[in-house]
Amino acid sequence: MAGSLKIVGTPIGNLKDISFRAIETLKEVDFILAEDTRVTLKLLNKYNIKKHLISYHEHNKNFKTSSLIERLKKGEKAAIVSDAGMPLVCDPGSELVKKCYEEKIKVEIVPGPCALISALALSGMVCSRFTFYGFLPVNKGNRNKALEFLKTLPHMVVFYEAPHKLIKTLKDLLSFFGDREIVVVKEITKIHETVILNKLSKMVEYFEEKEKPKGEFVLIVKGSEETYSEEKSLEDILNFAQSLINEGEKATTAAKLATKNTNFKKNDIYKQLIDYSKND
Asked: I need a labelling partner for 157 at 20 to 30 A (CA). Which of 17, 105, 128, 174 fits?
């Protein structure tokens, strides 16, 4: 009988932010997969959990996945955790989960804290609609291409960033997005948890002159306020609407947003979007 893989959310800072179910799960599995075993060991020691830890990260996942699948097929139970928060969100593990599905191995989720959702709640912004991008590409070409597209989105965009890259990322956002409002949230649930609201230009100045970046950061940037005026062409409107659909919006919502402050009718744009999708 095949075993199972448990995806277990862990605290993002304060070790008390863990569920009873998560503790029970970590105690009952045969082994635990962790990004950095030293980080996970601190959590296990706090709750007196004695389990074999296996390092599983971006650089070894390709050659470890097969052997892990074999162990699960033989009936063992495993948990996968990240250093902080929900596994598989900007972390390795999706390949293992997909392979489990292919091999008919049961996968279960044990929900826990997530820096993304926590930061949105702390931001004070209306967050019913947003795009989560995570970490920007390091490659300059890919980075610029991503920023060029993200700057057009009408809703907020959320990024993760490490302290040593924070100032460069803030400057890049200022360059591409303009001087928009941004909320910077750092060290969520820890002693130095901080929420800073300001314009991008002021945020660059703050971290360059007043505070050296420390800890892990979530950046929440206000969406584009650019509207499509009457002078915009039908092609412009359709392209903008299609970009929203590609980001997960419904066609009706995309048509409504794209035709705001224009002479184009929402229903006409919606019909063309549907016709295009049928012919694609």
From this structure: 17
In this structure, the answer to whether residues 216 and 252 fall within a common structural domain is no
Given 64, 88, 113, which residue is the final one in a domain? 113
Between β-strands 181-186 and 217-221, what pairing exists: parallel, antiparallel or unpaired? antiparallel
Provide the number of structural domains found in the chain.
3
124 and 43 in one domain? no
Q: b or e along 138-175 (b: 16 or more beta carbons within 10 Å of the residue's beta carbon)? A: eeeeebeebbeebbebbbbbbbbbeeeebbebbebbbe
Q: What's the maximum distance between 2 C-alpha atoms anywhere in the chain? A: 67
Bridge partners for 159 per DSSP: 134, 219
Nearest residue to 89 (alpha-carbon basis) of 118, 55, 46: 118
pTM, rounded to two decimals:
0.76
183 three-state secondary structure:
strand
| 67 within a domain of the structure (yes/no) | yes
